[in-house]
Amino acid sequence: MGLKQLRQAAGLIQTELAKRTGIVQTVISKYERGSQSVHNMTLANSLRISRALNCRPDELTDGYPD
Known about the structure:
Helices cover 53% and strands 0% of the residues.
């Protein structure tokens, strides 16, 4: 699963994930759409998102691009 699938599986919308991580919703949207590569995500963002989604950081790139 990639970021979008993990977020959806957690039952979160982008704005909820943004609030939990402190990452702007538009950045999360860019990661999900592929206009900003999840492979170039900062370590800090990777850790924030993986903690919020209860997954490993490397799982965020699985299935990328959709």
